[in-house]
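thread: overnight batch results

M.L. [08:02]
morning all. the overnight job finished for the chain we discussed friday. pasting input first so we're all looking at the same thing
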Amino acid sequence: MTDLMRALYNFTEEQNLEKYFLGKEYNNYQWAIKQKMEEIRTEYPQVRKKLNDLLSELNASYSCEYEAAFQVGFLLRGELTRLQRSYEGLFE
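M.L. [08:03]
and the structure it wrote out:
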């Protein structure tokens, strides 16, 4: 990731911009996940540490996916801009 891309990615994370694009479905999933995690932690306290470790690894993996998706979006935007500019010259 270039410095510019990293700065933009960090800005979107810090400002929580994804909340504007996530709908009720996402909130429903988050609520269900929290409920199920609490049930597992309560019912099986002996697996708490392993469960927390697993969640940390999953979160790190998802973070990598989000970064990759951001990079793809950033690069696609550049390609679309280049295409748009090349077609504008055809119609002038």
